[in-house]
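Journal club prep — side note

Before the paper discussion, L.F. wants everyone to see what a predicted structure for a comparable chain looks like in token form. Sequence:
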Amino acid sequence: MTIKSYTCQCCIAGGGPAGLMLGYLLSRAGVDVIILEKHADFLRDFRGDTIHPSTLEVMHELGLLEQFLQLPHQRAETFNVFLGGQKVQMMSFSHLPVKCKFVAMMPQWDFLNFLAAQGKAYSGFQVLMSTEATDLIREGDRVTGLTAISEGASISVKAPLVVAADGRSSVLRDKSGLKVRELGAPIDVLWFRVPRLPSDGDEMGVSMRPGELLVRLNRADYWQSAYIIPKGGLDEIKQQGLASFRQRVARAMNFDVERVACLATWDDVKLLNVAVNRLDTWYKKGFLAIGDAAHAMSPAGGVGVNLAIQDAVVTANHLHAVLRENQRISTTTLASIQKRRLWPTRLLQSMQVGAHKTIIEEALTASPDDPDFVPTPIKIMQRFPFLQRLPARVVGLGVRMEHVAPAIRSVSHT
């Protein structure tokens, strides 16, 4: 039985980057927003904690950048490939036409807490923690709200627009009946932490040997590490034993095996089941999916957060005036949001699928007897260094960089 009801102009399920950024932008524009976050706080290990130059540009446009960069972070101005003892620069962000020519390595919970705190400056911004969306409310063929569970109690939220930003396992996407197109991914990722020493340097990149591929991200006192494995390959690795896995990691990172003794049990290793998919249609009457709920991305390039933020910017740009003035949102308007974001999404996903085949699979299947192995795309980058600009732009800015509408920028931030 429902014990509490809410009303607002826009209800957002999911307090991740897409949901909180959209909620902040809409409330800044004068829209009453309620965001539902199923966890009690944001203190979870998101692992791929990268804030890209285009997201930093959004913060700059909103007048929040200086304050945001006061939070602890590391700056990555390049991305490198380590082939045995050889370092190859794959991309440099120094040429990008934005304020911040670097990737900020920052715990995602700090980013989310920052957005939530900034939203409190506006009376229309509300976040309900420990509140999980469970179903959609419909009147005829139009979505008019949602139901949720909040600390064991049932609630309902009525709103002319419900936005699903609740991730790749979106409950509301499933309840909407929208069709998901699976593009496939031949890999999974094992995430873990390895202590970092000052002598390690601070450059993020990928360590590559024949049959092995490991991404390492500088997080001050540790390396956030991603060991790439063939899809479904975890059971085989576990059968070989944790000691064998530690040797693999140490070899890939060129560390002594004692450095990875921190991997004491398999509980220290988290599996990310990689998926690449997207909705054919992102909307219904009164309903829109954005971020991972609309398009799950591979961790290749770390572009998922970047893409989600840009979805939120476009959604706010298209809808803030309509929502504030309590006008009915047409499916034509929702379709225009999908149209704006679909092409960048499709292109980025195609690039990721291509990288899986031409770099990752080529590396994982290379013979250990080939010490001079170098994936073909990296050979090309070595021969033609000017080509580094293309992946740097795609990773740093996305395929189409989005800007906050002047009407939202011009609102003073108190």
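L.F.'s comment for the group: The chain has two domains: 2-74+103-183+277-360, 187-230+232-272. Keep this in mind when we get to the figures.
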